[in-house]
Amino acid sequence: MKSLKNNHKIIIHPLISSLQKLALYENKSKFYIVASNNMETKFQVLYIDRMESHDLKVTCDGIEYSRNEIKNKLDMIDVGNRGRSGGSSRVIGAFGIVGFVRFLEGYYLILVTKRRRVAKIGLHSIYKIEDTAMIYIPNESVRIPHPDEPRCLKMFQSIDLSSNFYFSYSYDITHTLQVNLAIPENIESITTKDIQIKEPSTNQIGPVEVANEDFGSVVNKKGINEGRTNNLQEDKNIYFQNTSFTNGTKFVERVSHYAVRSEPNERFVWNSYLLSKVKKTIHPDWILNVMHGFISQSNVSVFGRSIYLTLIARRSNKYAGTRFLKRGANFEGDVANEVETEQLVEDMGVSSIESPKFSSFVQMRGSIPGHWSQNVTKMVPKPAISFDLSDPYCQAAGAHFNNLLLRYGSPIIVLNLVKKREKKKHESILSEEYSGAIKYLNQFLPPEHQIYYISFDMARMNKGKEANVMGRLAAIARAAISKTGLYCSHDAYKNQQPSTILGKNGCPGRIQTGIIRVNCVDCLDRTNTAQFALGKCALGYQLCAMGLLERPNLDFDSDCVRLLEVLYEDHGDTLALQYGGSQLVHRIKTYRKTAPWTSQGNDIMQTLSRYYSNTFSDAEKQHAMNLFLGLFVPTEHSAPIWEQVTDYYLHQSLTKGIVIQRKYPLTQWWDPEVMNCLPYAYTYKHKQCKSYIPINYHDIECVDVYNDFYKPHEFSVLKESLAEKISHSVRDFMPNCVTDYSPFTVRVRPGRRREEATKGGNKNPSLTGLSSTSSTTSSGSSGSESDEEDELDVQITDSHHTSPARDLPTPSLVTFESLFPSMRQIYGVEIKNPSRPDTLSYKRFVQLGYISNQMNVQPKVINICNLMIPSVVTSDSSLKVAVPKVSPTSIDIYKNYVTKSNGIVNVDDEKYKQYLNCELGLFRPIGWE
């Protein structure tokens, strides 16, 4: 939503794909894919010809069928083909089409057969692919076999689509939230025209049939072409909603609602090649854009008010590959291991669908832009870094930063974590080349848009006993985020402190301009820790924007930050598996000095696991990725991909004969249209959409996200809802027996971990003993380093300071005690048998109760409670006490005591005489001389 001039407000609603349930039917000549909406009231059919051995023929009649009509059509198809082809049969059910692919024989159809909801943004569901089916299309009668087909198929299927591939029917997960909520330029441009406002009458309501217009450019059953309305002057159903009078002048606020289908960011669409053959021939509702990366969501409960924290990592399909085979950048500026990470915060306490409260912060990681590589042919733990091509004009780096300015705006802040000084140069040559390239490019940029460069040697600083790596990263994060700001969908609160309001004015809300780019050599271990520090700092400002905190300060020992730490560790593990073949070793706790010493042995084993993966299996993974992305297309007259010596020519445009024609000198490495939009991103200011429809109601089916999310027509089990599946700050992180339920309170005792409290979920690899490794070039210490203290060159000034990070150590290996903790560990007490004195005291107390109340005690109870009563009193009560009997000896002792008190002492003269004569035997008699 965005306010424009002349009091004209535009509200956009994403178009929801109406085809979410699929059924595949087959006969000998065709495949029929019958798709329906969630309620199974509207159906469409896709026809795939099976009589073509090599070509793909997919047709869609564009007719929308009812339930009875589709049943009659399927019966008609079955009866019509029963004689010659045995009729039609249902093959499989699915939730979407991933795409079509061909190797050396015919085409294959790839379907999503299992899905799992992993997150929600607003009322838009995000699904993870859990399983797929790959079906060969041509009939066996026309199939022409090829000997290399099985190997190509096996290589393609090694890309596990059930591993971190995501999609959504209504939300564009290839764009950031800031871009998704921006008004498309082609809608904004038509609002400047004169619009004839029509007064609403009491008996005229806009047509509900407008919901069917999302099938634009399709012929309906009557053969009428339902094109989209692209001119507001043709729309007679735009009404104003708010009217007021000021000084006798009528004030009208015009509100327009549009259903919009966005243009995806092809950089993050991993099935773009698989859909390339049919994207222009079938309706967009059939198209399912699949993203590769990581998505996870958690619930931070603030006294019962749910705040959803979501982490989305989008892996780029440009220059994609494995660790040692993809380093640096290509000529187009696409870098290896490029991942865009977005941290979303959503206030679930807001019930308005039109005015939700969102906040997002975007950062990225990527290899150092340049033509460098590492030779893995030699069996060495750290392959030497070499530069393959000389780039005196820094064209690769210039193309890369031009693309960042295009997508994110300015300023670009580079946080380089590569070592700077070594006895034997290894990583440091990358730092020298990187800093030199940025200095060269900054010569030609205006001062206000220049690239900030920060160099921080985390590995060297972490070697010191008193090192405070996280404190230094927190200072860098606060200074950097104050420059870029963050996105907020609503205006600041009246009493919000000005120092916590970041970003440019977005009208309404705030806009993030620029990006923080983090890198080390592999962009894995150190990079993930630095991104966590940035995310922690940004989360403080995001919570301030939500009105939950007064100051953006979060302690490491709070439930909220522990939850965020788990999210970023899972984030780092997943990205490290995708690029490096194994998970993280140098985790956040390693740089906080809280990792247990027992984890070092596990680190060594996992480092060897990564080395084995990089040496022996990375080549096969790279071939599979090139085949999946369509970079290599098998043909009958070319050598197969496994016989290719290198894939360098597949990722470089110059080797393909594609020469980029530049209109400007090399010193102008940016595009003029990009520079004109700064500090805002070009993709934000000039956002385009595929199509749009003016609508009058936002509860029609094509934009009704409430109905799409909650599915009121289906029976729902609350235990299986998304809110019960995601991690929760109270359920999974807050310690037991506490009285302060705030997730921002510092906890003395470590709280429950999500891995211990949740069963069956994806657990942190450091706690499960799974493969968990780190890059050898990203190790924390090296014998080749000098002992000089590292210097931090921060070119961003900021007056804020942070305290050192503190945390309690927790074990990272699975033990019997960690899986089954004792009662003392959980509740602080322990059940044990009482001591004998305590048991006797309790029995005496019970017996006195029985006696005082004159209760009838069963004989067996008396036998059990046979107490020793040290008194002669047999039965006493509060009304009567029996006179005790005293023995004569006791009476004599008492009489002697009384006489002594009167000064009368009875002396035993006989005993005294014996004493004088030494007759008592106490001393030996001594004779007198």
From TrEMBL:
What molecular function does GO assign, one term?
phosphatidylinositol-3,5-bisphosphate 5-phosphatase activity
Tell me a GO cellular component: endomembrane system
Transmembrane regions: 91-110
Gene Ontology terms: biological process: phosphatidylinositol dephosphorylation
Query: Which UniProt keywords are listed?
Result: Hydrolase, Membrane, Transmembrane, Transmembrane helix
Q: What would be one Pfam family of this protein? A: Syja_N
Q: Where is this region: Disordered?
A: 748-809
Compositional bias segments (type: Low complexity): 766-784
- Is Hydrolase tagged as a keyword? yes
Taxonomically, which superkingdom? Answer: Eukaryota
Domain (SAC) spans 156-581
Keyword Hydrolase attributed: yes
Subcellular localization: Endomembrane system
Coarse class of the protein's main subcellular location? membrane
Q: What is this protein called?
A: SAC domain-containing protein
This chain's source organism reads Clastoptera arizonana (Arizona spittle bug)
What high-level taxonomic lineage is stated for the organism?
Eukaryota, Metazoa, Ecdysozoa, Arthropoda, Hexapoda
